[in-house]
Structure formats: structure tokens, C-alpha cells
Amino acid sequence: MNYAYxxxxxxxxxxxxxxxxxxxxxxxxxxxxxYLNFTELTTKYKYPTExxxxxxxxxxxxxxxxxxxxxxxxxxxxxxxxxxxxxxxSDEYILPGPKTGLGYILSRNCYDVWAANHxxxxxxxxxxxxxxxxxxxxxxxxxxxxxxxxxxxxxxxxLEATQQTKLNYIGHSQGTTDFLVMTSLRPEYNDKxxxxxxxxxxxYLRHIRSFIPKLLAQAHAPLGTILKHLGLRExxxxxxxxxxVIEFLCQFAPEDICGAGFALTTGYKRGYxxxxxLAVVFGHLISGISTKDLIHFSQLITxxxxxxxxxxxxxxxxxxxxxxxxxxxxxxxTSAVVLICARNDYVxxxxxxxxxxxxxxxVVEYYVAPDPYWSHNDHFYAIKxxxxxxxxxxxxxxxxxx
Length: 402
Prior knowledge:
The chain is α/β, with parallel strands linked by helices. It is 39% helix and 13% strand. The strands form 2 sheets. Strands 1, 2, 3, 4, 5, 6, 7, 10 and 11 form a 9-stranded mixed sheet that branches. It has a two-stranded antiparallel ribbon with strand order 8-9. α4 (143-162) crosses α5, α7 runs antiparallel to α11 and α8 (241-252) packs antiparallel against α10 (275-284). The chain starts with 21 loop residues before the first helix and ends with a helix. The model is unreliable at 1-18 (pLDDT under 50).
């Protein structure tokens, strides 16, 4: 069913905000890493970090954190840009701590890491003239804008800052979707990518197992209308009360509540992630997304196509000169790609990845984690992530960065 998305003024009553409340969290015995931000975490663990701002062509102000190489040797030639999943932020790459966080591991292996944030999340909730709390236009975006505006702006900024002509890219979940959009709609950016790692890639969603997204997708048109009239343009923001409730519950029952949440939505086997890490992750995980972004993913589920946003017949004719939205032409992606997947991933299904793989021109390796219970979030947070996933990333990075 087509869904024409229109604007309305945000309803502040339905997005009740809470301050950081650190004194309360400390008094309740929260794990400190739960509420520390990116630079506070890297400072705590003594990793040199810089904070940068990148402004997109359409005015969004993005924050990017740079973890400088922390090693005895010389830094590797090309920088590494990382992009997080839909509910995440740059924090995803450091939350398990200095021993097992991918950002830290890359830094110790002499890589210059640039941990990016897409528009609208807790770190990138700014615009040159729009206010996210009062201007509904701020939230008029999906992963289409991430790929067309955000990732190219970040790539260009990093290349200029480092005086390089190419860089490496690591994306997880929606971070892979963003990359696929960029290199399809703006294929000239393939020349700026040395190698990309698409971890739990999300493009085609015909075989998605996750029950909740499938259920919501079937009702995305009326649900979108309801959310529009309620003024809910931002969902699951870090400042919203739902975040504090989840953060609180996960401190005291990480496996029973948050592990169960992962098991229900993305696939998860109990015990794969340390309880301490589950608690910390859910203190950062819900970082703010646009309602329109979720609707776009719902459209992919119902259509079975990897396509641009469906604005309805009239809207599509105006925007695309076509009754139906065009598909992203991933065959235009010529840069080297490593696909990293899992058998027990309820979102990024192997059948859907096979469709993507068949259309890509330069798949260097298609890697399925050997553990049959490995899943969507295990790639970053599981106890064995360094052995099963990060070693594969370092293998390819070290091969091309000689």
C-alpha cells in the first residue's frame, strides 16, 4: 500500500523528555559506562579522541568522533569510517570496552578511526536553521537522505582532513543500507572507497524473520497516519522517557529483559553477550530515529524491493517521474565489498543477502560466521566477536593497507 507522508507540528506531550539524571543513575548503582558519552568513554580508557562536525549539503550538522591510532608502529595509510545501525550511534563501536570494542581494536592496530553519526540521532540532532523540537521538517528523511547526503559529506570531510584519496568503510545494519544507497545513487563515490565491510547487510527484506517489523510493516500506512496526527516525528529519542525506562530495567535484569528483547527482534542466544555489556548497550542503544525512516523500511518489507521512498502515485510522479519508486541500482557499486553475515539473524537473512550478493560487482568475500546461533547484534557485542568477526575485518584491512 502506498503511503504519502506529510508534515504536522510535533506533539510535545507525547515526547516527554527527561534530563540526563546522572546523580540518580549513580545512586541507583548504574554501570558507569551506561551513561558516559563517546568522548567520556574514550577518555576513561585513555584513547586519544577528537570531535568533528560535518555539515551536509541540505544543512544537517553531524558529529563524527575520531579515535587516533594508539600503537607502537606507524599509522596505517588509509582512515576507517564506521557507521552504526538504525537505533544506534557511534557508541556501538566502543561499548564492549577497550578489550573487545571494535573501535579500540582498530586503534590498537594502528588505524585512524572515524566513528560517524547519521542525522537525527543523539549526536547529530542539529541543523543550520531547523529545530528538531519544533520544526517537523527536520525529521523529513529516511536512509535515502543518509546515503545521498550524510555519508558522502562524511567521506569528503575525512578525506580532506587526512589528505587521502580513499578510505575504508565499516557499516552495520542500516549503516550498510546507507552505504548501498550512496554508492548506487552517487556511483562516483566508489572511487573514494578502498574496501567496505557490510556487516549484517540490510537491503532486500523479503525473508525477514523478525515478527515485530513484519507485523508493523503490514499496517505501516494507517500506523504512519496515526503517528503523523499525533505529531510523533521522532521515535525512541535518547531524551525520551522510554529510553530511561529501558535503561533502568536493563541494569537490573539484562538477560531476562534486554537479552529477551534481542531474541525477539533480531535473534539472540542467551549467554552470547555478557550481562554487563547488555546493560551498557541498552543505555546507549535507543538514540533517536525518524518515523519516516521506519516507514521506509516497512515499505521494503511489503514490496520485497530495495527501493526509494514510496510517496504515493502523485508524489512518485513528481519526485521520480514514475508511478512506483525506482529501485536502488546496486549493480553500480564497483568498490570492493566484504559481506559479513549470520545464520541466526532475524533481520539480515541469508536468502536476502544472496539477492544483494548476486547484484554486486566486486564481492571480495562472502563470510558467514561459523557459529549457527550467531546473530545480528553478536557481530559487535558478543564475547566471541573479536575471534569470529573482527579478525576477518583486520585480515582484509591489513591485506589492502600495506
